Amino acid sequence: MSLFLLPSSLSLSLSPYTFKIMDKRPCNSSQDPEVRKGPWTMEEDLILINYIANHGEGVWNSLAKSAGLKRTGKSCRLRWLNYLHPDVRRGNITPEEQLLIMELHAKWGNR
């Protein structure tokens, strides 16, 4: 019987017939070392908005690369869905919406 050590980022999957070594590194750790993090700039927002206006939403990882953004696909998806999408409403809720929330909470609670 032989023993061998694996680096901490790798794990060994044992099955009766095969040995598989699975890498537990994050998806983008080795692909692009220049992935931008931090706040989005107005230029990046405009690039994303224009790209989606021309090509539509799609596979976010390829969208990020095709648009020329140095962001992950997840970052682009979250930026679009939470901030830039035209259907996202900003500001205070109306008194009618407040009343609806209170009625639904009275009926259903915190489900």
UniProtKB/TrEMBL annotation:
Q: Please provide, in alphabetical order, the Gene Ontology terms of the cellular component aspect for this entry.
A: nucleus
The answer to whether the entry has keyword Phosphoprotein is: no
Myb-like domain segment(s): 32-84
Q: Kindly list the places in or outside the cell where this protein is found, as annotated in its UniProt entry.
A: Nucleus
Q: Which Pfam families is this protein grouped with?
A: Myb_DNA-binding
Q: Where is the HTH myb-type domain?
A: 32-88, 89-111
Q: Which UniProt keywords apply?
A: DNA-binding, Nucleus, Repeat, Transcription, Transcription regulation
Query: Which Gene Ontology MF annotations are present?
Result: DNA-binding transcription factor activity; sequence-specific DNA binding
Q: Give a yes or no for keyword Repeat in this entry.
A: yes
What's the protein called, per UniProt?
Answer: Putative transcription factor MYB-HB-like family
Q: Which organism is it from?
A: Lupinus albus
